[in-house]
Specification:
Blueprint (H helix, E strand, L loop, with lengths): L3 H11 L12 E4 L9 E4 L4 H9 L4 E4 L16 H11 L3 E4 L1 H5 L5 H8 L3 E10 L2 E9 L3 H10 L12 E10 L16 E13 L3 H11 L7 E5 L3 E17 L1 H11 L6 E2 L7 E10 L4 H6 L4 E5 L14 E4 L2 H5 L2 H12 L5 E3 L11
Parallel strand pairs: 2-3, 2-15, 3-4, 12-13, 13-14
Antiparallel strand pairs: 1-4, 5-10, 6-8, 6-9, 7-8, 10-12, 11-14
Family: Belongs to the GTP cyclohydrolase I type 2/NIF3 family.
GO molecular function, one term: metal ion binding
InterPro entries: DUF34/NIF3, DUF34/NIF3_bac, DUF34/NIF3_sf, N-reg_PII/ATP_PRibTrfase_C
């Protein structure tokens, strides 16, 4: 038996909601986390047609990349496609979950999929997120320090990139006096206690802070636990938006454009001035990515692939790289496959459908 919360927790293993952008609206937008799931339909956009498709396929959970509710709803009377989709979902008991920028900022998310489609290697995050690595400092009786530290590691502390169990310890003397009403594990009420203690320092991912603090309280011996947490300024090179990597073989610009059209299934590319240089290092950022142009330049990319560039954005290339706009839908189209494949691996005996509806609102002639 699978519930909506089980699917949400699975998705959040690769796309924690804590890493979504502040402006975004992610998570369960319509429905009940405790509802049993009959089937899952994965889509880029939740349109009324997609909700109808979910009904026909007996899927009461839609996992959508883009959030159908973004800027808020003041009325529900069906005057636009957003209200129509939400009303149809509610009437038919359809839950809607959106991941959007949480998956944008995932190391194995939207931009990983683009890089994979273009067969890039030596990939790394283009714009790493800062202020999402935290540090926990606490003190424990030395004889119990390793037990406590391992419990914190089991809860997710000490993980960064391809490393786990990252921490630091130093031994010293701690002192305290239990007062009236206390129930000390060590010492007696009214007596000053000096104890061999170990200061424990561990890094922790921001999205696991709650679970790690819970583990701290569950495994610490003291009645009153001294601890502190604070945010590190370090960027996390494994979480962030966009990716940059290398082609196996460099190409001239026109050959690369042909390759890009073929691999990204796009008939139309807008681009800045050609520089008559070989293309080797490629930066990608699915969706609206004008804000990442300076980062692509700083990464010494030969070309930057994104969408929704405005007229004046093309000037900012400044002959340092070639900017390409392949279309918003086109840049994110393979995200649906990524989510579907992941859910099928997590729930092997459960029905997960890839929506057959093309929700791209842009047409070409």
């Amino acid at each position: 038996m699978i519930h909506v919360k089980d699917v949400a927790q699975a998705i959040e293993e690769i796309a924690p909601l804590a890493y979504a952008e502040d402006f975004d609206n992610v998570g369960l937008l319509v429905g009940d986390y405790n509802e049993q799931v009959t089937g899952i339909l994965v889509t880029l956009d939740t349109t009324p047609e997609v909700v109808e498709e979910a009904i026909e396929k007996n899927c009461n959970l839609i996992v959508s990349f883009h959030p159908i509710i973004f800027s808020g709803l003041k009325k529900l009377n069906g005057k636009n496609y957003v209200e129509k989709a939400v009303m149809k979902a509610i009437k038919n008991g359809i839950n809607i979950y959106a991941t959007h920028t949480a998956l944008d900022n995932s190391r194995v998310g939207v931009n990983f999929k683009i890089a994979e489609q273009l067969k890039l290697f030596n990939t790394k995050i283009l714009i790493p997120k800062a202020n999402i690595i935290k540090q926990l400092i606490t003190y424990a009786p030395t004889e119990h320090a390793e037990v406590l530290k391992n419990a914190l590691y089991d809860a997710g502390a000490g993980r960064i990139g391809n490393y786990d169990s990252c921490g630091f310890s130093v031994e010293g003397k701690g002192n305290f006096r239990p007062m009236g009403g206390s129930n000390p594990f060590i010492g007696k009420v009214g007596e000053l206690v000096t104890e061999d203690e170990t200061r424990i320092e561990v890094v922790m991912p921001q999205h696991l802070e709650g679970a790690i603090i819970k583990a701290l309280y569950a495994n610490h011996l003291y009645e009153e636990i001294a601890y502190s947490t604070f945010t590190l300024n370090n960027q996390n090179p494994y979480i962030g938006i966009g990716m940059v990597g290398d082609l196996e073989e460099e190409m001239n610009e026109q050959d690369f454009f042909d390759y890009l059209k073929q691999e990204m299934n796009t008939p139309f590319i807008r681009h800045s001035k050609l520089l008559n240089k070989k293309i080797k290092k490629v930066a990608v950022l699915g969706g609206s990515g004008a804000f990442g142009i300076k980062n692509a330049i700083a990464a010494n990319a030969d070309v930057y692939i994104t969408a929704d560039l405005k007229y004046h954005d093309f000037f900012t290339a400044e002959n340092k790289l070639v900017l390409t706009d392949i279309g918003h839908f086109e840049s994110e189209q393979f995200t649906k496959n990524l989510i579907t494949s992941f859910l099928k691996e997590k729930f092997t005996n459960f029905v997960v459908f890839n929506s057959g509806i093309n929700t791209n609102p842009v047409n070409y002639c």
